[in-house]
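Supplementary Text 2. Reproducibility record for the structural model of the 336-residue chain.

All settings were left at their defaults, and a single model was retained for analysis rather than an ensemble. We include the record here because the model underlies the residue-level annotations in Supplementary Table 4.
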Amino acid sequence: MKKRIAMLMTAVMCLGMLAGCEGGTTTEPAATEPAEGGETVVADGTVYQVGICQLVEHVALDAATKGFQDALTDKLGDNVVFDVQNAQGEQTNATTQINAFVANGYDLILANATSPLQAAAAATSDIPVLGTSVTDYATALDMTDWTGTTGRNISGTSDLAPLDQQEDLLLEIFPDVKQVGILYCSAEANSKYQAEVFGAELAADGIAYKEYTIADTNDIQTVVTGATQECDVLYIPTDNTMASNTEAVNNICQPAGIPIICGEEGICKGCGVATLSIDYYDLGYTTGEMAYEILVNGKDVSTMPVQYAPNVTKKYNAEICEALGIEIPEGYEAIE
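Retained model, structure tokens:
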């Protein structure tokens, strides 16, 4: 809900003249002007209300949210206000929080992860919605004719690192692997998508694999223990449930001597040996720049292509590699 005090006063003064008249009104994009430090502020004093729903607290999603807020604050300064909510990993919470954003008439919604994006898609067809940390928009939105844009009030950024390159990374470090276990939460549609693609890459190289799924955190002990007994390497995609439980996973896998290749740096820092990762802060910042184009320059979100991280980096967890006696090839960057 924009606070357009000047416009409201004008509307009140002209109310008598407008009575009985028909027709709509249009609003031009607000004029902007540079501010000190390189920021851009809205000249007419518009304050944009932005709702942020983050699925759960963990390093990657936290970084994406911060990047998004920083991008808009860099451009708008005090002319943007954020309502930041955390769904604590629950779809019902995400739905409630986003419905509140819609009821309050916010100007834009950021859905950080797949479940909030799905909740936002169900809650509004009018308010612009941007996703971030979403792996595959076609899967998340159940679209079969994906062209790169949604054709509706939704766009955003994807955290999908090239899965074929992730599989290459696994084979580079473990060329003699016999069976790979793919570990993820069955409730996360984008994790299932990654598992299917990664499995197909393994199969094409003649590597046996098996999927191990948990329904919730109560399954971790049993499922992960079973995976360590049947596989010599595990792979965890960009999965929010696993990202929130890396300590529990590591407490099982490291004593068993089973290494894990991860889909992103945050998971790798907690339980993995290596990853081909994107920068989630940069991803969020890019999403914030998209939001600015929508809010201030009137960009049509329905025609904005989903954007991907421009760079991926090979990284390794020095502590876990040392504990497992794994030597990492040259060209990898240590996770700090």
